[in-house]
């Protein structure tokens, strides 16, 4: 097996696993039962999506996808924090 | 990939259209969001699909085969505009909810009479 | 003065006078009258001065170019016919001016009346002097409009308003038909020029468009000349001041219709269609008018129906297809103008001096006003066709034409019979008028004591009656030359020979005339009293047919019908409207595709399939469908699902080589979610459906099924189109050029960014303008935001936190909330500089790598928003003052300035400059004006998005503050 | 799609790291499904946010360092920031859930601290 | 120094981050990184967060490794639980821990450590009683957890940010 | 002929930039105004007025200049089809001037009171005009989308300006409908790009000359795009939003919005004659345009007959006017189209004037007036209170002036002599009646005649009700800015009738020019040909380095 085949298959598989993780998170998100479960599901969706981006960058050997991942990692939590805060206090900003 | 993306666009669009036809303002706002996703992906699809070839040139003089940058630029413009307008729609729906007391797109429940100065919203 | 100038002066003077009179102060009754009189007389003088030039059938023509490409020029054309009508219009006009000066009360805004009057004179002259058919239509409609103003002069009076509206509606409608008819004639002839049209009689009559053109032109003429059944406007127009009625219904307005029929007689008449349409309209009008006149109690009403009947007579004459009848028609037009004007004026005097026009109340006025009575009697006799007066002459000609026309067709025997009958009716109502008003017992119980009017008020009547007598006695000396010129103008070389003698020998027409006179007297003797006490309120046989009532009903019906149609063919509510939009787009796409035989699934290129991508889209689809399903009752869940769908879209962009899009979409996604949540605060939870009546439920179900179909087809359609395009090879488009030239010519490696800030920077400038505008609009709306009462309360979570705090020793409200945010606060605060750095990073690398001003701006906004979320609006604003509106302005200025800077170098707007600058220590650094442009984008994006978010966030703060503000006065009151 | 060009040893290391990370992340997501209560489920995604992410990011750094020819550390930033930020969401969620469960008097509601 | 560099660790962090983002470093990017490190912290002056002083950087590094190790171990534990690989009874539940630390920065770090470690979750902190409510995916040994939190994390943190 | 700017390197005249002025100037002035304190009303009013006057002047100069030859302006110095170009030809210059006059009068009208009914009116107003101008000038379909959005976004702001329940409710529907239209627009444009590979209008026309590979898909895109434009034209059955929205908007907003639907009409004319005038897709959609136009006139007439309020009637008048131009276009008669273009200008003025008049007549009966800010805090700026005070001298003889104005509007809209409305209809009828008369020509003549009557009847009814029937309300007060504004509009109508000859000659020449799409294509694509092309890259680089050296 050549290095590129290994990479191709291995990273493809890793990406597939991450997408599968996304699917599981989405399942929780859709299933609930409570709003907190859904938010948790969305947060996990974001997380695994971010990792999928990193793996995609590895598959293509390109650093061009890094910023998308960094943004998700640094400020992706803003959306879920807002949701959680809404749940906790009934409003996002007092 | 093409069939997957088409199906995705279709489902987003169908969900969006369905929501846009609903009577509650918030439904319409979300429908607008979904429909914008669908349309943005549609515009993007007009440049055909490529994987792993962003239109960012390497530091060499050679021209490489990359994805069509034009639809990407168009999507970016459309994206910003639809973001702005979604925000606007949201605020208008809030304002409407405030002044009419209900969240129907027409500003009144279908089986309620049109409000008059003498008989304001319930 | 040249003849052209005289002609132009005659036509323009009245309009100029109208403007001047309108500018006079509203009490300037006498100056206005003097002005109007002078103008009218001057105009008349001009026309009279041109008389010698008309000898031998000549015409005076003055043309001004107006719309050469349409063949429409302003042509003033004076011939014998026009001369006759001009003199009629101006001479009677001058008398009306004099009369009105004394008739109108000082309290009325009389200058306005004179202003309208002069405009009307001008419009009438415009009609009769038109040398171009379109010009004729133009002035035609102008008379409708000005008469509307004249009739509605006393607009406080409902009758005046209704009368004005009715006359305008009917005559303007006729005018519109006339316009189309004229255009058809123009198409047949190839010109609107009157001379050309008059020369093409045979062409017109033989054209397939003859009938439509004839019908349309006649619609104009018959409505204007108040022919049955369009006559209904005329009696209602009596609400006008009497001088106006005298003018409109004797010499002018209604005569415009007659004029037009005479004018076009040479080219339109001579056919069966003309005979039947014009003849029967005239006959019906003659009978209906004279019959109805009998039953009027109001003197003006009597004159109105009498006018209708005389107009019918003239029309009937024109319909007979006989040149001699036309001569009679012209002659009777003049006669009718003189005696009817004098009668109206006499009635005006009666009304003025007694305060009523009701014949049942009037009686024995002879004693009080013998002079006026005499004048009225002579005029009425002329109207009735008593010998030695002008009416007799033209009626003789009429009866003679009726007899001549009997000819071979048996049905034509009716013509002389009906003509005689109508003449008898005329005699009847004329007699009734004189008898009831001037004779009988002295009047009692009148609003005012009757007496003779002021001297000047009588002069117009005297002159008119004198004319009646003079024409009646010596027609050849008085009217002869004018009539001759008019006839010559109509017929040219083919003018018929006629005789204007009083005595033509004892012939059938004379017998009929005598039968009519005698019959009229007899009828009056038999039925006079019964008419007075007529309990049915209207003419026998026709009392059910109240034209005014019918008109009002049809207008109301029209409005009602229109409302029904508006509901039927329109949609007031949003949902049906949107349904139609989607259906229209679907059908349009379908129609276009089917017409060209579009095959969506043509085999083409495909990108290798990746199951992970498909799985990701299963997630995306589930999120979308979930959002669609939950959005009604579970807004928060739906918002979460939309977030999921958005993430999948972003990842798709990334997967398919669009990192810039992915970055932007992710950022926008985050901000949108925060914004939706800020908004959700003001949308109280929806727990259950609003109860709807059961009947609604079935309909709602049906609508949902329809919507589902629309949504499904919309989805299928968009998916199909996307698939069809994606699987077809991309043609030789402009894309390749951008990829090749982005670096060499624009100095950027990120082609998308180069497109945004250089190649298509103009798009971006517009795009940021949108963002700025929306930011400001949101701000404006929220400044006046009034939350619904049920969302004014603080959220219940906060209540229960505070309750928890109150219940415990040593805790004060807000502590629990503060504890919960303790950690997030620290993290978010210390993250702030790092996000700023991220934003700078995105900004500076944009030209060469994914990023750019927009992404940087949104990232910076998120940095701010995180602070707001962690620490609250008040806390942040005590520390950081951001002025978002100023940022918006600054951003626009920077971006536009970066674009305009290229002007200094003689290059078009937005021409970018780039170079590598050699700097000490740093070496080569890129310098690009596009970066400045991008900075403008960034600044604006921060301003606009922060403005929206902060304005939304402030609502809670405002709620708290207003609650405090309300609590304070309440506390003061209790103390 | 043109994959990166790596020596075989590096390829294997990268793949093992990526698969390991993805495995942990997947396990975390699986926990989201399998665990019974909300408070248990909150723990699960942390697997992906910590070890799962670290392994993948390490693989990415190795790969990109080799591809770009210089040491690439930027992916570490992602690891750092998700470690700092993910807990914020989690603890706010847990706090919100605790509050809701207490006010609704659900069985399994957390006690007062 | 404090006026020019009010938050030296922050400045260093920002400079470092810029350099990492723009590797390999060039003279230009180094200058820019230094400028950013110098200028950007100015915003913190506006925000005025509670001041943070790091007393013992060495201990901080040691704590970092402790946490990383615990994280790794917990990851494996929790993965085993999720995958059903662990035998025996597992109880899940809450545990209340009295904390002595009051610095919000320290508490934040503690919360990040606990929450970022699979198996432990920071649920609620009461500033009046100083008690922390924590959720454990496996609370079989809750007393052990209390000790672990206090000894392994709280004490070093208090020492670092004293 | 092309402007010097485009023909030789470096040879630039300042006057060549004139074409971009109507877009750049409002952006810059609006930007500057956003930096100013909101309370500086007078300064802002003066700035706005100066800007709008400058825009109008630029438009008039362009009208005069383009009679010689169209002007093409390459934004960013990139040649078509790669860059975006602005194209001023007879049609766009005429529309530009129309927008200028309308903008001027609406702005002046707003000085009396409306400009202070909400924040940042002037900025929004200028940006609206900027969007309109851009839409008229651009030669690129996607850029057209952007300017449509600018214009619409500002129109949303102006519709909501002043707030209040009526406006918010109407605004919600208006925004929803137009957002859908915008999405259709995007779908259409992107399909066009996906099949033709270009966005430049001239380039599209050029490519259509030879059969494109994907004609069917392209036409589907055009169909969707057409629906979007017809929504913006408020064509039946897509335009039910218009009367409600315009009736709810404040008067100056409604008056300036009267141009918005005309932008849709403009685009339909522009694209259908350019793309479908000849070539593979010749005549595409023409029947539909005709049918829609006729239906729109009919529905507009029904609506105006049914109207209870003047503002609503004015809204339907706008619809009728759009429908008329569409139908005239659909008949394919050049004469009718040139008449319709003339009519478009006049009827737009008249509809705008009617909105303004209606506001004065209905003032005091406006429930939206009652809205006051709820919260007493920083959101309530001092100028909010000033919003009710009025500026300008009260004009005497108000009723007479309003009456005359109303009459003129009625005559204009009903197409009754002697104003431009009549001339327009006459020109259309003459155009339709010349040559071989087809069934559509008959239909249009009939429908327009009935529509004239259907406009006259209700307007007279409403006018009598507003002006003649005695009311308890205080008599209307006309402020000097309002008077000036009405005078501008109505004088424009009168002038249009007086100089109908030259005006019609202009529109006739316009239609001749439009029916020669190849000239347009040549003008755009040959503008500085090759300068943006690869082969001349060095040339451009040199030009840039000179610019750099100069700096
Ligand atoms: Na693509
Ligand atoms: Na944890």
From TrEMBL, chain D:
<dbReference type="InterPro" id="IPR005133">
    <property type="entry name" value="PhaG_MnhG_YufB"/>
</dbReference>
<protein>
    <submittedName>
        <fullName>Monovalent cation/H(+) antiporter subunit G</fullName>
    </submittedName>
</protein>
<feature type="transmembrane region" description="Helical">
    <location>
        <begin position="6"/>
        <end position="32"/>
    </location>
</feature>
<feature type="transmembrane region" description="Helical">
    <location>
        <begin position="76"/>
        <end position="98"/>
    </location>
</feature>
<keyword id="KW-0472">Membrane</keyword>
<feature type="transmembrane region" description="Helical">
    <location>
        <begin position="44"/>
        <end position="64"/>
    </location>
</feature>
<keyword id="KW-1133">Transmembrane helix</keyword>
<dbReference type="Pfam" id="PF03334">
    <property type="entry name" value="PhaG_MnhG_YufB"/>
</dbReference>
<keyword id="KW-0812">Transmembrane</keyword>
From TrEMBL, chain E:
<comment type="similarity">
    <text>Belongs to the CPA3 antiporters (TC 2.A.63) subunit E family.</text>
</comment>
<protein>
    <submittedName>
        <fullName>Na+/H+ antiporter subunit E</fullName>
    </submittedName>
</protein>
<dbReference type="InterPro" id="IPR002758">
    <property type="entry name" value="Cation_antiport_E"/>
</dbReference>
<keyword id="KW-1003">Cell membrane</keyword>
<dbReference type="Pfam" id="PF01899">
    <property type="entry name" value="MNHE"/>
</dbReference>
<keyword id="KW-1133">Transmembrane helix</keyword>
<keyword id="KW-0472">Membrane</keyword>
<keyword id="KW-0812">Transmembrane</keyword>
<feature type="transmembrane region" description="Helical">
    <location>
        <begin position="27"/>
        <end position="47"/>
    </location>
</feature>
